[in-house]
Amino acid sequence: MELVAPSPEYHPSFRRALQEWDGAHQDGAGIRDAAELADRAGFERWVGQLLAEETVPASPAHVTCTYRWMVEGDEYLGSIALRHELNDFLRSYGGHVGYSVRPSARGRGLASAALAEVVRTAADRGMPEVVLTCDATNPASRRVIEHAGGRYERRVVDPDGHTLLHHWIRTGAHAQPDVTDVDVVGGPEPLTVGLHEYDPAWPTRYEEHRARIAHALDGQHVTIEHIGSTSVPGLAAKPIVDVAVAVPDVTDEAAYLTPLLEAGYELRVREPGHRLVRTAERDAHVHVYEHGAPELDHYLLLRDQLRRDDTDRQRYEDTKRALMEQSWDDTNAYADAKTGVIEDIRARARAATVRVRPVRSTDADAWQARYDGYRAFHRLPEDAEAVRTTWEWISTGAHGLSGLVAEDADGRLLGLANVRRFARPSSATTGLYLDDLFTAPHARGRGVATALLHEVAATAAAEGASVVRWITAADNATARAVYDRVAAATPWITYDMRPSAD
């Protein structure tokens, strides 16, 4: 398969593809009136319009866009579109990329290959990230996005009532090289503010700054989080609200720094990967990073651990109170002095963290190692080829299979679950069948299986499935204790019949 610019030469094949679609919408194709494409002249006019949209939007309601077709020889297989910017509708519902593969060509990995190439095209255009959406009931499209490195962000409901899943992918592009030195505007400052008992008004102050920042950066893809000690109920803190903001490109200061300064914040720190602005009153600090920056995960990991663990919260407060008994000529030195206890708390949080997500192409080696363990647990013979084949099925969506993995805070795989959709004729609905569920021996007792089961249930709900079904051995008491907490055992008995022509 190759991606090519739209061309009239594919008209015969395109007409056959239209018959396969039978009037259904083709995302990323740019079709406004399919009836006009039946004759050669109309098709040529439409192709010319698609090519022109590279530099001129189709209408004031559209944006410039690069269209590419997936082809093999003279056969049209599908379309993919890269929108160069986002208007309000695309920012909420459509994203930068739309794609569709004709029904007869699905299941061959074409969408994954096309998306990978378009992400490279976006990087060449200087786009630091691309936003994508997919219908919550379309697990195949979600797998394509995740396979390309897409990170899930949120759910939205479009004007037609469809639930969409928002993702974004980093392309690696930047507007310009980042700074290489640390610039602290105004130089070091002594610590003059002491600890205050927790103030219930702090969350309200955060919300005020959140609204102020969101207004300043309106129209941009940003996320805003309350971090630091004022974000932890019950924790004594300096009365300075810390806010983390994630932007597409930290080097593109014109896009975010200028608006923040115009909103009344002042630049305090410029350093690689990070900018810090604050209020003139110095009662709020706004930390700016790129989407996906590890520092953001570190902040949230600490915050969430302190919110849920009374012991760690008290230990952190005791450490801060002890440090406050000293004199600090540089607030940064005070912050550095807390590093040891912060790292200890994060380490415990990482040890307890279990995150569930769809499989990615980069999981291949770790997933296959875990699946080897699954086969060994069930006393199946070693079979590297069977493991590789199963991975190919899971990672490409063959046979309707999809995979979930559980990982710790450092990204190590703790377990896996493999599911597939099946039809239920008696109820005229579909269900999800859980083929495999496995937790690595060292991770047992941490709720890995339960987390995977909850995500399978959430996936089933999002896809409109009526049930999640699986089997287990009658004498597997450990597994059944977990299953009994989340599902109901049935009275049915499973039979296996050997295939036979007789």
TrEMBL record:
UniProt-listed Pfam families: Acetyltransf_1, Acetyltransf_3, GrpB
Record's signal peptide: none
GO molecular function annotations of the record: acyltransferase activity
EC number: 2.3.1.-
Tagged with keyword Acyltransferase: yes
Residue ranges constituting the N-acetyltransferase domain according to the UniProt record: 29-170, 354-502
Keywords, in A-Z order: Acyltransferase, Transferase
InterPro entries given in the database record: Acyl_CoA_acyltransferase, GNAT_dom, GrpB/CoaE, NT_sf
Broad class of enzyme this protein falls into: transferase
Protein name: GNAT family N-acetyltransferase
Gene source species: Curtobacterium caseinilyticum
